[in-house]
Every structure is written in C-alpha cells, then in structure tokens.
Design goal:
Layout: H1 23-27, E1 36-40, H2 48-64, E2 71-75, H3 81-88, E3 94-97, H4 114-119, E4 124-127, H5 130-135, H6 140-152, E5 156-161, H7 165-169, H8 173-185, E6 196-200, H9 214-230, E7 245-250, H10 258-261, E8 269-272, H11 279-289
Parallel strand pairs: 1-2, 1-8, 2-3, 3-4, 4-5, 5-6, 6-7, 7-8
Bound molecules: 2-phosphoglycolic acid.
Length: about 290
Amino acid sequence: MKVKVSGERRPVRPSPRPAEGRIEEVRKVPSPNAPLVVANWKMNLGDQRGVKLAREVREGYAAISAGGAPRLVLCPPFTALPAVAEVVRGSAIQLGAQDVSWLTEGAHTGEVSAEMLSAIGCTWTIIGHSERRQTLGESDETVGRKVRRAVEAGLTPILCVGETWDERDEQRSEVVVMRQLESALAGVTLPARRRLVVAYEPVWAIGSGHAVSPAEAGHIASLIRHLAVDGSHYGFSCPYPDEQVEVLYGGSVDVRNVKLFCQPGVIDGVLVGGASLSVRSFTELLRAIGEPVS
Ligand code: PGA
C-alpha cells in the first residue's frame, strides 16, 4: 500500500501543560496497539472495596506504565460504575460494563441501557460472557442483539465466545466458536475507526486455574480473526477491516502465563477475572506484560 506524503511540514505546537500531579500519567498514555487488558470483577467489589481497588490499581498502573504499558479497561459491577468512573477520571484507564441491555429505554424492569452506561463514562461493555449464557440462559440471539445495540450506541463490545469441556472433548471447539460468532455479528455494521473485540474464553478454563495452551488459544484466535475479517466464504455478512478487530484470550490468566497470551498479531490481550480482584496480583500481571519472557 502506498502512503501519500505531502512535502509540507506543519508547525510544531507546544503540547498543553498537564495539570499538577498528573504529569506522570498524562505522559504514559499507552499506544493504541499496546496489549489490551480487561478486568472483569464479576459480582464482586460493588461497594467501597471497589473504589479502594480502583484507586490502588490507578496508582500501580501509573507507576508501571512507562514503556510498553498495556491498555486497561476496568469492568466493575453496575453499582460501582459511577464511583469507579470518578476514580479513573483523568487517567489512561477506561471503564467498561459487564453487560448491557439490547433494549433502548422504557418499561424494562432491571435493564440498564447503553445510553445510561455512556452517560456515566463507560466506553466498553462485555457481552455474552459464558456465565450469563449458562447460568442466566442468555441465547446466541440475545447476545447478537446486545452487540448491535452496543455498537449503535457507541460502546465497544467485548464479545465472549468459547466452548464447554464436552464440546472440546467432541472436537467441536471451532464449530461452536463459529456459531457464536456468526450469530453475534450478523447485521453488525462497524463504523469507521470503531473496534470490535472478541474474547475467546473456553468455558472450562474460566476460574479453574487451568488455562488453555497458548498454541491452542492462538489457533482459535486466528480462526476468529479470519472469520471476522474475511468471513464472507462462511456466510458472514459483515467482514470488518483487520485493524478494527481485536481478539483477546480469557480463562485463568495470571501473572505466570499472561505474557504467553499476548501474542502480537495473533492475540491482542487478555480478559482477566480472578487475578484482577487484588491489587497485588493485578499490578504484577500488568507489569509482567511489559517484561521479556524468561
Ligand atoms: P478467570 O475469569 O480469569 O477468573 O478465569 C475470566 C473471565 O471469566 O472473564
């Protein structure tokens, strides 16, 4: 591809002076292609403990994010979102919800709309986590509606897909992931420059302490990318530009294995549950991403 270069040089404007006390963090905004870490707190830390952890994570993240800082999204429970939004304001940390309604507004008891989430500063939302699919009976169809709604409302969806142990045993991992992806993305048009994130999370690996092998995760991640980018052969209606698709791995990611799951060009980052619930394990994990593999 040819890149057009104009001969003109723009005058260099001095960058605005950052507010007192923010200098370190302002300089340390990670690159848009740095690994992406999404912390899924699940139904934990919905009170002051969430605020405390967010504060500690902000401090820890600012201290380690000098070079090769991962991008970071915190996904607390709904009730903690406004308070955590205050804590991360002005930092490079972004805010995500763990779910979103596919409905817009009105008489829908218990639902939280995409607009409500945007209004409090959320820019991301997890959709179709296996705990919602399995325990709360969320169908492929509902997951698809949520993805469409999130994109329409300007939230970046983090779509979770992955097979159960039995499905893997029957060597159906690929078929299951393809089905989930196809129904979630049907009719989803992605505006220019907006990203779609797909998290490959084998159900059996979540919270079990047994992550999938990095090679297997890489294989499924490549399949996901291939389908999202070039899936018209498989009947996918909306292939997306490569640079707008990110694939994460999730399932028992911790400080020891995180680096193996950040494989530039194959796996763009990680979705972390248990290890994101304590400042120590989480900041160690964030730090490990920037360190060389031993
Ligand atoms: P885990 O959870 O890191 O505790 O396995 C990941 C997830 O469920 O998103």
